[in-house]
## 1
Amino acid sequence: MAMDTGIPSDVWRFYLLYVRPEGQDSAFSWADMALKNNSELLNNLGNFINRAGMFVTKFFEGRVPAMELLAEDKTLLAQVGWELRQYVALMDKVRIRDSLKHILNISRHGNQYIQVNEPWKKIKGGDQDRQRAGTVTGVSVNVACLLSVMLQPYMPTVGQTIREQFNAPAACVGAMLHAAGSFVCSLPAGHAIGTVSPLFQKLEADQIESLKKRFGGQQVQSAAATKPAASVPVPAPVAANVGGGGAVAGADPEKAKQLTQAVAEQGEKVRVLKAQKAEKAAITAEVAKLLDLKKQLALAEGKSPDAAPTPRARRSERA
């Protein structure tokens, strides 16, 4: 069945391990699979790895630039090292699903690191700015190489593809996983990478809808449809309390679950940007996305979006 969907096997492996039951029940959802592919694989993991490689190709003639680490680079590498140690510890305990989250955390840190440092702008500046762009690019491509190794148990084909695109030495697999959680630079300055290309493709809504119809148990429904319909009393519709900030029609529990996670992830992104003292415009844009997600969540929960408190409203309530 999986082969017939046209979705790569590594994407199936990723999603089924992402929702793997560990201490609680789990259920497969086409909509959730599309959400995880598009948000976690395409926009988070794939975006970071592709950008890191493309910066090397576009700005440094395909060779890893020299790196002169500053405090914020060391902070990123400390975060990466912590996530790596958690990953290893959880894998030792066979907590496969929880361990996977630390891979995604690293790429999330990497995306924020690139966004704050803006190497595409600094490369156009003076010598100091160009050096900074080189350091950010070199650190990023090495973190991306680490991710290729961490992905090996989950997405072996994708992991191998990343290492091939970066011309990574075969020894990097052993070196990166036997460093007791310490970051290892496997792509030194001057290392020539290969051709970089996108790792993942977006799953479109119409594609998912088609797959749901094809594999959604239509035969069972058709058989049930041949039976005479029983006379079932239809309950009277309940009027929705829209004006008072209460429930409204159209609650969607599955979508609410997905949006709850999206709100949590976006909230963490905003917190990290604030902690890194990013530019006000960047923070404002991410806060706007967070507020929009909260409104979508309120609708999915059957509430009025006006009832979702803004960050300023919450501070007033605590005061």
## 2
Amino acid sequence: MAHATIYVGFTVPQLLRGASRIFPTHSALVVMRHSDFCYCTVNGTIKSKRKMDHLERTANNFRQEVISQAKVCGITSETETVKRLRLAIANKDFTFKAGQWVDFFIPEVSVVGGFSICSSPGLLEREGILELAVKHTVHPPAHWIHTECTLDSEVALRVGADLHGYQEGKGNGYKMGTVKLYYSAKNTSELLFKKNILGLMNAFPGKITCHFHVTQQSSQICKELQPHVTEGRISEKDLEKHVSKDTLWYICGPPPMIESISKLLSNIGVPRNCVFFEKWW
């Protein structure tokens, strides 16, 4: 049976880590906005607006025993506020699954960071490389990455996150469904991984589509993006046409956005058990 999956949120790594791994038999509809990176929960309830430390917030989450040393082997700017960090992993026993995050230990920083992985498990298997995308904030680990981290800087990583509904890929024998991505940001320069997304659309025509939304665009939109960009927020009208009993909805974003979209989905008749989201800082 084919399903539609709607993913509402701010980050794209989960889609990029392998649409074939995450949506092997489902039709996917994804709604996104751009922001910080987070850890995954399912059908959770946001009860407090107090910002908690990463270790405190994830104290009850699963963690692997392996802590691996890692060396920074690449730093690139995805946007004006987000850096992509490329890390060479020392421990051959270090593994992860799509959707997990890492505890990020910096020798000279007492606060432990927590960042989502934006590369695929396959890249780690093939090259021993893991990538993180980190937004610039005053949080000490993120601030260090943006202001002090250099090539050959050494850190340590540990994988964590409880995965709900995760399914391993079954090879090439499955029937791929469709993915419809709605992704919102302030402007097109803040749309992370847009080139990767356009590449996926070209690689899987009719299977993966994307609707970019911008809310404060002041410059001209480039020709490549113009057919896919709408000015204004993601609306009920955008989403209601995708409602069906086979639709799964994934939301990713800060608490107010998750609460707003969750309420919108409830209003248009989406069952709670079909809605999945990530819980942010």
